[in-house]
């Protein structure tokens, strides 16, 4: 056990003591101080993490996405197949697609897979049977619907994924014209770095994941790997809770973890913000303050409810939001490139950390200028 878990000091006293004794910058979320001594455990890792967090918390980053491409191809119909519309990230991206489709002048239909393998397969079968111009793989593993993917490919229907595979850009196996996402390595690293920086390199951490989704499992493994770069950061628990089961299972798991670890647990990272919505009642029942500890960061997706929890200090301190609206517009732009016989854009938005300090009451985050950029490209 490390020093922060050997004492019965309150969290506030601990933070104050750390600031006085260590005097090391804790990231912009907690302010800065004059350095009068080194952190325990991982000074080089801590310095790198603090620099990365400062960069990710900036809000004045200019648009670095595409500024050129084919003009709008007319008369297209897109079907968005959602893993489940109860997943805020999936739903947020769907809203962005809806908005962009209206601007470019296309028809759009959303089919909800309901979060079950059978439901997603049925939704994909329905989508292929409609013979649309393109299909969005909205937040599920394309390999779980390999038969329908093959049918779409045979019918010449391009597929664009949102969080469908691990990496942004085109995919050969499974066959996707493009996959729209931030780089999972960057999201995982910065969420773990936030814990390292904010805790001054001394934390007891719980990680929440959904191992049934390859993308999510990969993200949580990368989070675990980055946390391990600091020797005084302890991974207390690695909890696998499928997203469709989160509302029922998370409260029970959190209650058990609080009982088991008590004050040792002072940070959490989840692959999706929604775990903290479901964890809040259990934290409240256990007498935990909404402002922490544990200090919780979501490594995606940055939906409005996550921002509300952060801004109101209700059991979430930060999120690494996907720019959901921008990504919806990018999905439409990728289809437009496919229809025009052009290659995918290859764009992946840079990672960002939203806190109460830098979100200023906002409930979403998107890079500035994306709407104007895409409208200029499409001639709309």
From TrEMBL:
Domain (Periplasmic binding protein) spans: 78-337
What the entry lists under Pfam families is as follows: Peripla_BP_4
Per the record, the domain of life is Bacteria
Protein known as: Substrate-binding domain-containing protein
Q: Which organism is it from?
A: Streptomyces montanus
